């Protein structure tokens, strides 16, 4: 007789809600199985009516609806898409040759003039896409080419143009005013044409038979937005969805293993230590935190094994990181004998924690697992001699305090590659002296020098090596303690094939994606 199954607390809470979640998921799917259409349950509804100049652009990209001039390969290299090739005329000028024979979903032709107009609109937008921060990009048509110019030398121009927020749409998508919303419905170039958006509830796409590339295997996509994680799990369990984004860890035990696919994410849960004021101005006390934490306990308890212990700031989603990490890809044994992280060569040795040392640890509720991590971290730090006060609120409420330095330590789930697919922008933002998101308030000449050097190099092996040297310089300060690298659980129904499992969350449904009938 097999032993009785005892669910964890998280699993029990998920199972309790199965009935109501299944009903919700069943009501939210709009197509009937057997017609070959793909039924997709997504985590977040649109926040701006699918305006591609916002984060909603990633939905259009994942549906293969809107396309960019270039796409990224697994290592972050630029590959042709709506541009077939490109050359660099000088330090600030790039020339992109536009693919011929492409039509928009409204039947109009893709031209260099329209590409230049799209990029110019984005650059002049009231809130330009973040990928253009500091670039002062201009675009003009020159025959069948688009000439892109930046105000200063930028080796990442092709990678920047891969951002879904710089998707190329037909002229009809754009408003007359530079602050108006862009409407992508019926104006993309991809293998699927967006026909309907029903607010924050659902969207419908049809196969575009005049697509310039391979014809899509599926006749269409029916998208439902299901923010409730239990409901998304139930949609997969009850076969009311074929493809499901972000299955919560709490649902994993109630689903067949064959339906779940783990995708390593370029996202690291990191403890930022305030180096500007308070007890963590002392590098030895920062090192005591580094040695006190036990990531394995966090992964086992909170993520139920569905995460990776951090060997540094950059995790397995960046396939080249471990290869160029000077001190190796392994985690190291901390003072407790458990796996600890971030001990780069040159890191300060831990000092003893003075009696009565009190710290405030902050985090946010938008990612529920972080609240659970805070509880365990507080226990681990108290075992090392700290007295810990915690403050966990909604992110919108707590971010101003974190940026103002109100906390001694702040736990953040942070994307380590931003829209360019390159981690230098993240390192500049979070750890340089001029960083705009510097929760550690780090001002270190060695870090600034290392990050600047990495950012000036061409994309390739030498840039990768320089990035890892910058990571080492950051970790040696003890200002950040990376804990774990997150994974996402993607749900795929039996019979589904060809879905992308993309760490950058840009691709999901492609021309090859289909469901057996």
TrEMBL record:
Keyword Signal set for record: yes
PROSITE patterns: TAT
InterPro entries referenced in this protein's UniProt entry, alphabetically: Peptide/Ni-bd, SBP_5, SBP_5_dom, TAT_signal
One cellular component term from this protein's GO annotations in UniProt: ATP-binding cassette (ABC) transporter complex
Domain of life of the source: Bacteria
GO biological process: peptide transport
Residue runs in coiled coils: none
Domain Solute-binding protein family: 79-436
Protein name, per record: Glutathione-binding protein gsiB
Species name: Actinomyces slackii
